[in-house]
Amino acid sequence: MTDSEILEKYQHPFPVSFKVIGTGKGATDIIDKVKSFGYECVGCILAETPSDCIPMDDDKMVIIVARDNEEVANAIAKTYHDAGVLTIGLVYDPNIACFDSVMMDSRHEDFPEIIKTLLQPVVTQGYICFDFNDLCTILHDSGSFKTLTAEGKTLKKPSIT
After folding, report:
1. Which end of the chain has a smaller Cβ tally under 10 Å, C or N?
2. Is residue 5 assigned to a domain?
3. Within 10 Å of residue 8's Cβ, how many Cβ atoms?
4. Residue 109 CB contacts under 8 Å (≥ 6 apart), including other chains
5. Computed over its alpha carbons, how large is the radius of gyration of the chain?
6. Of 39 and 77, which is predicted with more confidence?
């Protein structure tokens, strides 16, 4: 049996739900970009009020994106955080108590790529197993985080972004 056949046989589609919720100015573009990634287990929602989205039993992680309208973003985050959902914020002025972790020093233009950086290792099958539990362990109650990615054609010339 080849390695790819083994992966196909023993790895199943990701059984949990992730959400990306955008609110405020510019959220539509970010949500549309995240939808274009095609992750089946990721729901993308635009919310104008906290009542536009509520935690469900199968929700495991929510990423909340807001360039403004922080009051709504914080209220949504508190609802998910209180429900035990890993709550990550890409918000300019967050109430830290409402989130498990918030992104530091980021530009809104980078939000879609930051979201992809967080989700890609978890939702993509591969030889190295980095699952939701690993991500949760790293970000749960961490307060803040930064992302760093590296790409390269060879091991000699990586490009760090």
Report:
1. N
2. no
3. 12
4. none
5. 16
6. 77
